[in-house]
Design brief:
Protein name: Spore coat protein D
Radius of gyration: 43 Å
InterPro entries: Spore_coat_CotD
Strand content: under 5%
Shape: elongated
Number of strands: 0
Largest sheet: none
Distance between the termini: 101 Å
Helix content: under 10%
Length: about 100
Amino acid sequence: MFQRRRHPAKGPHCCPPQMMPMQYDPPQFLPPEQYVRTNYIHTVVPHVQPAHVTTVNKHMIDHQYYFPCTESVVNECCETHTMCGMPPNPCHMPHHHKHMR
């Protein structure tokens, strides 16, 4: 019978890729993000100015207690000005259209 001649290999042979099991690294913890929650408190302040005078005689006894501590407060003020009646808005006035013929 005939014998086949073998040719020398001309480079590496490629094998099909293999799927390896999933690997997990340890979790990476970032510094926490800081959020500021702002509460808006709407306060209506009616101004009523009646007058009455009462004389009160007070005897003051001064009891002094000391409790040092620290505290921080942020006060923000928002104002509104209410207009009772609005001037006409020219952008919302009715237009008179000319009909094209």
